[in-house]
C-alpha cells in the first residue's frame, strides 16, 4: 500500500517505553502516573457495570456526565455550556483533537502549529490534506512569538492549535497571550483547537487560561480535554470536546461513523465522581509538590532544569554535558544510566535540537529518587 504518512515512524513514547523495558530502566519517558488512581472511582466503575450500564452509551455521551461537565465549566471558567448541544464525550483527548481537525480541515488549508508540538498534531493535520505552518516557541522560556504568528497568517490559514499547560515543556499561556490570540483572530474565519488536557495540572497559583474564559475565542474553538490526566487513569482513554453548537453538529457527524460512542461504565462512574471537586482542585498542588521534590533531587545530578509551570513534565538541558544529539543522548541514558526520558527534538518537524530532555514526574517518590540517583552517577 501507499503510505499516507511516509515520514512517520513509531511514536517516541512507544520507542522509549520499549527501550525502558529492554534495559530495566526507570521510565520517566512516556507520561503516565506510576501510583494508583482513586479507589472510589474504580469502585464506581464496578458499580456501573454491576448495575447493567454495559451497552452503547448515547452517541454524544452519557447525559448526566455532560451535565456535570457543563456545571464544572461554568464554575471554573464562567462559561455557559449547553450539555445537549456543545459537549461530546470521546474515547480520549487525542481522538477529540483528531476529530476536530477532520471535521474542519480541507486539503490545502494551513494550520499554525507551535513547536515543540505534541506528536499527534502534525500527522492529524497531514492525514486531512492540510499543511502545517510551524512556529517555534522561543527557547528557553517557550513563549509564543506573536509577531511571527501575525506574519504567518495567510488567506489559507484555517486553524491555530494551542496547548496549555504545554506538553512537552510545561509552559503555560497567560491572559496576555489569550488577548493576543483574540486580537489576531478577530474578524477572521480562523478556528482554534485548544488542547487543555492538563487544565488541572498547573502550579504556583497560576490560573489556567482556558479558551472557555474568553467568549470571543470560545465561539471559534474546539476545546479538548482528557479524564486520563485528571484522574490518573491514562489507560481509560476518555475525554471530551466542548465547541459551539454549529461546530459540535459537524464534529458529531464525524464521530458517529468513527467510534459512535465511548465506554459506558466509565462515563457513568465519572458522572458521579465529578461531584467531588476536591479530586481535581487538589491536583495542581499534589503535582507541584512532586515537581519541587524532583527538582530538588535533580540538583544532585549534572542536568539543568528549565522551568515547568504545568503538565507533569519537567525539561532538563544537558547542553553543557555533551555535543550528542538528544535522541542519541536519551538512548545512551537508558542503556548506561537506566533512566528513560523523551528527547524534545521528537516534537519538532525538522528535529530542532536544543539538547533538552523531557522527564515525567507523575511518579512515586521512590521512583523519582531512584531515577535521580541513577542520573547523579551518570558520567
Ligand atoms: N494532548 C496532549 C498534549 C497530551 O499530552 C495527551 C496525553 N496523551 C493528549 C492530548 C491525549 O490524551 P488522551 O490520552 O486522553 O488521548
Ligand atoms: N501524553 C503522553 C506523553 O506525552 C503519552 C501519550 C502516548 O503515549 N501517546 O508522554
Automatic annotation (TrEMBL):
Similarity comment: family membership: Belongs to the class-I pyridoxal-phosphate-dependent aminotransferase family.
Pfam families, per the entry: Aminotran_1_2
Domain Aminotransferase class I/classII large: 26-375
Keywords from the UniProt entry: Aminotransferase, Pyridoxal phosphate, Transferase
GO CC annotation: cytoplasm
PANTHER family in the record: FI04487P
Lineage: Bacteria, Pseudomonadati, Bacteroidota, Chitinophagia, Chitinophagales
Protein name: Aminotransferase
Cofactor(s) recorded in Swiss-Prot or TrEMBL: pyridoxal 5'-phosphate
InterPro entries for this protein: Aminotransferase_I/II_large (IPR004839), Kynurenine-oxoglutarate_AT (IPR051326), PyrdxlP-dep_Trfase (IPR015424), PyrdxlP-dep_Trfase_major (IPR015421), PyrdxlP-dep_Trfase_small (IPR015422)
Superkingdom of this protein's organism: Bacteria
GO molecular function: kynurenine-oxoglutarate transaminase activity; pyridoxal phosphate binding
Amino acid at each position: 500500500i501507499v503510505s499516507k504518512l511516509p515520514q512517520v515512524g513509531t511514536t517516541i513514547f512507544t520507542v522509549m517505553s520499549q527501550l525502558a523495558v529492554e534495559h530495566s530502566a526507570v521510565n520517566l519517558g512516556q507520561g503516565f502516573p506510576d501510583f494508583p488512581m482513586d479507589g472510589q472511582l474504580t469502585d464506581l466503575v464496578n458499580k456501573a457495570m454491576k448495575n447493567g450500564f454495559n451497552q452503547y452509551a448515547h452517541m454524544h455521551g452519557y447525559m448526566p456526565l455532560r451535565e456535570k461537565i457543563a456545571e464544572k465549566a461554568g464554575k471554573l471558567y464562567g462559561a455557559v455550556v449547553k450539555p445537549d448541544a456543545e459537549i461530546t464525550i470521546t474515547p480520549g483527548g487525542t481522538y477529540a483533537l483528531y476529530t476536530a481537525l477532520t471535521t474542519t480541515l480541507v486539503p490545502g488549508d494551513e494550520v499554525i502549529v507551535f513547536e515543540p508540538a505534541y506528536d499527534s498534531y502534525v500527522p492529524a493535520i497531514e492525514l486531512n490534506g492540510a499543511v502545517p505552518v510551524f512556529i517555534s516557541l522561543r527557547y528557553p522560556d517557550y513563549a509564543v512569538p506573536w509577531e511571527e504568528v501575525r506574519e504567518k497568517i495567510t488567506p489559507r490559514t484555517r486553524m491555530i492549535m494551542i496547548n496549555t499547560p504545554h506538553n512537552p515543556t510545561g509552559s503555560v499561556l497567560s491572559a496576555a497571550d489569550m488577548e493576543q490570540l483574540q486580537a489576531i483572530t478577530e474578524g477572521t474565519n480562523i478556528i482554534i483547537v485548544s488542547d487543555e488536557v492538563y487544565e488541572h495540572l498547573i502550579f504556583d497559583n497560576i490560573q489556567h487560561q482556558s479558551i472557555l474564559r474568553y467568549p470571543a475565542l470560545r465561539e471559534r474553538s474546539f476545546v479538548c480535554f482528557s479524564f486520563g490526566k485528571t484522574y490518573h487513569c491514562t489507560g481509560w482513554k476518555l475525554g471530551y470536546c466542548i465547541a459551539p453548537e454549529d461546530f459540535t453538529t459537524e464534529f458529531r457527524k464525524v464521530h458517529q461513523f468513527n467510534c459512535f460512542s465511548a465506554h459506558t461504565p466509565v462515563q457513568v462512574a465519572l458522572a458521579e465522581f465529578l461531584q467531588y471537586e476536591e479530586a481535581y482542585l487538589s491536583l495542581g498542588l499534589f503535582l507541584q509538590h512532586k515537581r519541587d521534590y524532583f527538582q530538588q533531587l535533580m540538583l544532585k545530578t549534572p542536568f539543568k532544569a528549565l522551568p515547568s509551570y504545568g503538565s507533569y513534565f519537567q525539561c532538563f538541558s544537558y547542553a553543557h554535558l555533551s555535543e550528542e544529539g538528544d535522541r542519541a543522548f536519551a538512548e545512551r541514558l537508558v542503556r548506561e544510566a537506566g533512566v528513560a526520558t523523551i528527547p524534545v527534538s521528537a516534537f519538532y518537524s525538522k528535529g530542532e535540537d536544543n539538547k533538552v530532555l523531557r522527564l515525567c514526574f507523575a511518579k512515586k517518590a521512590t521512583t523519582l529518587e531512584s531515577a535521580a540517583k541513577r542520573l547523579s552517577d551518570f558520567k
